[in-house]
Every structure is written in C-alpha cells, then in structure tokens.
C-alpha cells in the first residue's frame, strides 16, 4: 500500500491533484450557496448540507494527504468516488440540448469537464504508481526497511 519506487517527479502530479481537491473542499465552506449545500440542493442531492459538508471534508483531508504523499493510494479512492460522482451528476447533464454557454452536446461538456477528467486520470495514476520517492509514504517505507534490516542483522 505504501511501497513506491517511482521517480521523484510523481510529486508534480501529487501536488497538482492534491491542490485542486484541497482548494475545492475549502471553497465548499467559503461559498456554501454556490459551491456547497446550495449547489448540491440545485443538483437534487438529498440532504444537501450533510453531503456537501462531507464532500468538502473528504476533499480537504484526502487532498492534503495526497500533497504530503501520505497514504496516497488510500486517499485516492474516496477522491475517485468523489470525482466520478461529480462527472455523472454535473457533466453528463450537459450533453442535453442547451449545452454549456451555448455550446451544445459533447464539446460543451468536454470544455466544462476538462479539470474533472484531468483529476480522474491523475487519481488513477496515483493509485497505480503510488506517491513516488519524495513522499512521506517513501520515508515510512525506508524507515521500516531499515528497522527490519537492523533486527535481522544485530
């Protein structure tokens, strides 16, 4: 779960993905009418205050974990559920007539969903490769290996 020997450059994906989710989670609390419970209510999500606040907390906590490279694969799972729900509930609706900003169908949806799709692929990447060499996961694994090595060779 923590093991990773991928290049240090993975930090670029971690920081990009983590900052987007951290920022979006914070904004749900800063702008509740437009990005938090108010938006969830407009989308028809039941118990909008509960689910918007839960979503905000998950985005903040998991986004921070991903930035730090701590439990990265585990933190990616709830965010994959989160972004998949966002795509289904907000972006697929844009395929209907009327579109997004006057651009109907697929291209309007594709324009509006570009960040969501980038986050989806970034999370899949992190789930696949882990957090990389420059992460707290890697530090924990190195210390565990060192401890095991010392225990086996006193």
Kindly describe this structure.
This protein is mainly alpha-helical and 154 residues long. The two termini are 28 Å apart. The model has no long low-confidence stretch (mean pLDDT 90). Helix 4 runs antiparallel to helix 6. The longest helix has 21 residues, at 10-30. The protein has helices at residues 10-30, 37-42, 48-68, 72-91, 105-112, 114-129, 136-152. The protein is built from seven helices and no strands. Helix content is 71%, strand content 0%. It is elongated, with a radius of gyration of 19 Å.
Number of strands: 0
Q: What is the residue-mean pLDDT, rounded to a whole number?
A: 90
Described by the principal axes of the CA atoms, the overall outline is elongated
Please trace the helix and strand order, writing H or E for each element: HHHHHHH
Distance between the termini: 28 Å
Report strand %. Answer: under 5%
Low-confidence stretches: none
Largest sheet: none
Number of helices, where a helix is a run of at least 4 consecutive DSSP H or I residues:
7
Q: What structural category do the secondary elements indicate?
A: mainly alpha
CA radius of gyration: 19 Å
In which range does the helix fraction lie? over 70%
Assembly state of the chains shown? single chain
List keywords for this structure.
154 residues, mainly alpha, single chain, elongated
List the helices and strands and how they pair.
Layout (H helix, E strand, L loop, with lengths): L9 H21 L6 H6 L5 H21 L3 H20 L13 H8 L1 H16 L6 H17 L2
Helix pairs in contact: 1-3, 1-6, 3-4, 4-6
């Amino acid at each position: 779960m923590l093991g990773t020997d991928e290049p240090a450059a993975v930090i670029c994906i971690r920081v990009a993905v983590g900052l987007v989710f951290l920022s979006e989670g914070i904004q749900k609390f800063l702008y509740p009418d437009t990005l938090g419970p108010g938006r969830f209510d407009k989308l028809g999500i039941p118990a909008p205050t509960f689910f918007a606040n839960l979503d905000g907390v998950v985005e903040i906590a998991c986004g921070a974990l991903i930035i730090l490279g701590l439990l990265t694969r585990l933190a990616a799972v709830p965010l994959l559920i989160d972004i998949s729900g966002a795509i289904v509930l907000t972006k697929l609706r844009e395929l209907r007539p009327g579109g997004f900003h006057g651009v109907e169908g697929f291209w309007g949806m594709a324009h509006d969903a570009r960040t969501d799709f980038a986050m989806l692929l970034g999370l899949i990447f992190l789930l696949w490769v882990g957090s990389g060499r420059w992460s707290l996961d890697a530090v924990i694994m190195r210390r565990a290996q060192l401890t095991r090595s010392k225990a086996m060779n006193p």
